[in-house]
Structure formats: structure tokens, C-alpha cells
Amino acid sequence: MPTREIRCILTGMGNIGRTLLELLSSRQTLFASRYGLTLRCVGVADSTGVAFSSAGFDVAMLASLKALRGAVSDLPDFIPGLRPADLVARADADLLFEATPTNLRDGQPGLDIVRAALQSGKHAILASKGPLVVAYGELAALATGVAAPRLTFSGAVGGALPTANLGRHLAGAVIEQAELVVNGTTQVILEEMAAGHDFATALAHAQAQGIVEPDPALDVDGWDAAAKLTIFANAVLGRPTLLTDLRVEGIRNVTPAALRAAWNDGGRISLVGEATRRADGDYDLRVAPKTLGPEHPLARLGHGEMGLLVQSDLAGRTTMASLEQGPVGTCQAMIRDLVAIYHDR
Ligand SMILES: NC(=O)c1ccc[n+]([C@@H]2O[C@H](COP(=O)([O-])OP(=O)(O)OC[C@H]3O[C@@H](n4cnc5c(N)ncnc54)[C@H](OP(=O)(O)O)[C@@H]3O)[C@@H](O)[C@H]2O)c1
Prior knowledge:
22% strand; 13 helices; seven-stranded mixed β-sheet; Rossmann fold
């Protein structure tokens, strides 16, 4: 079957970027047969700089390079001095996969990279949250219009959970309440504390599993969950929202006694990102630890599982949960975006 060739650029080649490269290599045949797509990776960037190959890189080679702690600057096609955003702006390519570190202060380096993609007519598929949290409105405007490139970010909000795609799922309905349990790290820490460990020990155990952000405050003080709720509010609730619009409380003050009491009652305490529709039509947005009683569907989430519950006027109560191992669920969500851009359209 003839396939359509998509020339893509990947910025960020860590857990997500490297796993995505492995998928682009191992699923080549499936992408061609199921969706009629051939992916050619023509540009890459990591913290050492950028490389470009018009003929396309061997993606399996790139994945091995990064798995062996190699760098883009080791590649023969390395371009010294060129910024990732400049590569994205100038390269002959159709699509950007963006997976650089999330920076909630100014969105960089992802923000300049995504801007460059959209301004040069390339679709952008993001795993990183920073650009969306800092500049959702600006980026969405660049992606508005029939001929405009698409801005997609399924993987940025809860891995494989279709959180950011809920708008389409609930077409025509008004969301009355949404509860998001989308920070796996705090779920694990709170479970450990309910089992008898103190906060510091539970945090150390989670760090030993490699699931805590380099700056643990992002997880335990609620900022990762807040970033995801901010994106959800913009993309799904249609409410222009900044991080500063949310009330944010992390899990540091949750006591083992409270956790055990909830647990013994058949429920649990989770860090929940919550949007509640007010009578005036606007939403109260907050992230805080919440006691979920035994009857609450999100109280039944398993170890490390993420979930969301949405109550809407037309579709009633929608509950979803996802148990994922490592970064592959997020990469699947990025493939979902790819298929939505090129195949579903
Ligand atoms: N990990 C997950 O499960 C997950 C899930 C959902 C969303 N995300 C989001 O996805 C993004 C990537 O996560 P990750 O876990 O893959 O992070 P990571 O392992 O830290 O990888 C980050 C990558 O970005 C590169 N990088 C750093 N600074 C750069 C710069 N200035 N210009 C270009 N590249 C730069 C790094 O280069 P080096 O390789 O040279 O260090 C590395 O390849 C983050 O925004 C994260 O919030 C992650």
C-alpha cells in the first residue's frame, strides 16, 4: 500500500524521546499498514545541540545512541551553534515531537521550539507541559484556522489517559465537575504513608523507583498536578487559565493517621486536581489532598494507577483509569495525536 511520508523533528531525547524513537523503529510496519504513514526523522535535539539529515536518521541508531548516553553532538550531522528553535523554524519538515524538560516558570526551551514549529506551519505534538501552561492562548491562536498547523498534547496530561481529548468525547456537553488523579508519584507516596512509612521515607522510596521529578517540589507540592489541571482547564473546559488561577496545596501536611483512617474506611486520600462549575458558569480550580470515600470510583485506583472522573450534564459520569509502565504510555498518546492529525482528519 502506498504510504504518506511525514518528515518529523524530535526535540528532547530522554525517557520520552528515546522511547518514542524505539516505537518509530519497532512499529514502522504497523504505521504503514494501519494508517498509511511512513515517519522519517530528519531533525533531533538534546541538551548538546541539534542535528539535521534531509535523508532521515536511522531511528533505531538514535535510540541506541541515547540509551548508551551518547549525545546529538556525537552525530556526523551535528550543526554546532544552531538552537533547536532555529532548526525547527528552518528545516524542511512537517511535524514536531517536543519532549524537552517541563519548565513552569517561562516554558523554555519548549516554548520557543513550539512557537517556531507553529509559525513555520509544522504540526506540534507535545509531551512537555511548560509551553502550554505558560502560553496556551498564544499557541492555540497559532493553531487556529482551517489551514493552520495542529497543536496537540495528549501525552502531557496523564500519559495514555485521553484527558486532553475529553472535549471531543463530551461534545455538546457541559462539564459540571472534573476530578483528576494524574500525579502518580504522590499516589505512591500516600500509599506508602498509609502503610506506615513517614513522609521522608515514602519520598525516598519513590525517588529510588525513579518516578520523582528532579525537583521533588513539583510532585509533592502539587505543581505537576496543577500544570495538568491548567492545561485541562484551557483545552477541555475552554477557560483561559494560568497556574496562578489555581489554589494549590501539596501533600506535605497529610498525616499518617488521616491516611490510615481513610484506608481503614475502604477509601483513600489522593492528590486531586478538581474543577467545579459555579452558578455563574466559571470554574473553581484547585489541587489538594482529598479524602475519597469507599464509594468513589477513584478510591479504587490500583498501585501507581492514574484516573479521572468527569460529571457532565449530557453524558453523566465518565470515569477512566490507566495503569502504565514507564514512559511508553505517554509515547502512545503522542502516536494517538499523530494519527488524529494525519489519518482521522
Ligand atoms: N517521563 C514521563 O513519563 C513523562 C510523562 C508525561 C510527560 N512528560 C514530559 O515529557 C518531557 C520529557 O520528559 P523526560 O522524562 O523524557 O525528560 P528527560 O529524561 O529529562 O529528557 C529531557 C530531554 O531533553 C533534553 N534537553 C534538555 N535541555 C534541552 C535544551 N535546552 N534543548 C534541547 N533539548 C534539551 C535532554 O538532553 P540530554 O539527553 O542531553 O540530557 C533530554 O534528552 C518533560 O517535559 C516531561 O514533563 C514526561
